Amino acid sequence: MYSSSIFEANLDDFSALEPQRAPIGIFDSGVGGLTVLRQIYRQLPNESIVYFGDTARLPYGIRSQAEILQFTREILTWLQQQQVKMVIMACNTSSALALETVRQEFNIPILGVILPGAKAAVQEGKRIGVIATPATAKSNAYKHAILEIAPDVQVWQVGCPEFVPLIEQNRIHDPYTAEVARAYLEPLLEQEIDTLVHGCTHYPHLTPVLRSLLPSQVKLVDPAVHVVAACAQELDLLGLKNTHPPLPTRFAVSGCPQQFSQSGVQWLGYTPMVEEVRFNDSAISQLL
């Protein structure tokens, strides 16, 4: 696979750094979190990143809360071992079902995507549609967050179980994907929404498809943009913003590194070197 010398050098680099130069951890079930990573590159170009994709266990949207909580704990434990200074939970399902619990358990700042996305949505419109994984939609996390901020708005949610697998299979421009999207959007269009929230970090990859099906006046909200803005504020508040050049981004997955690398090229503009990490009975092993 990949030489252990590369991995050990990266760990040595991170462990030797002062707190400001430590990396930010980002995790998602797969390539969806790359939308957050791209925003880090744009908004916080000096930050080093450790990215984890739990590709062996996606999609998260059909998992139970207990499973999501277990997966999140395992990933956060691994990220802590990588000496990250902050974690962005670039997964709406985990943000909806596990964020509040793990914040009590881990002594590290952890940001979720739902509250930043909800704050942005209420600034855009009064009739808000949310497309999300079934688990996120069922949790009503976006609806609760939006209505807590602005009780006078109306919110409709649709669970979209097929989107994540289609995106992970690189079928965005497949005619079938457009058919599926049309079916998911239909009940929201019937409600004459003025704003649509990407309730999953995978979904911005579908923007061209969704835009072609939505009226031009409907505004799209990408929570990835806003969670990174919140991250920047938090780093300033904690005095942890890095002002030095970043280290190369590290990528790790629980599934096939080659598949993630091939999928990631189109979103990143370069071919990432990807490590494989396995979680066995809560024991974490690095395969090199």
TrEMBL record:
Active site, UniProt feature: 91 (proton donor/acceptor), 200 (proton donor/acceptor)
A GO BP entry: peptidoglycan biosynthetic process
Signal peptide residue numbers: none
Swiss-Prot/TrEMBL keywords: Cell shape, Cell wall biogenesis/degradation, Isomerase, Peptidoglycan synthesis
Pathway connected to this protein: Cell wall biogenesis; peptidoglycan biosynthesis
Highest taxon in the source lineage: Bacteria
Catalysed conversion reaction: L-glutamate = D-glutamate
Pfam families according to UniProt: Asp_Glu_race (PF01177)
HAMAP family: Glu_racemase
Function: Provides the (R)-glutamate required for cell wall biosynthesis.
Similarity field: Belongs to the aspartate/glutamate racemases family.
Protein name: Glutamate racemase
Organism of origin: Nostoc punctiforme (strain ATCC 29133 / PCC 73102)
Phylogenetic lineage: Bacteria, Bacillati, Cyanobacteriota, Cyanophyceae, Nostocales
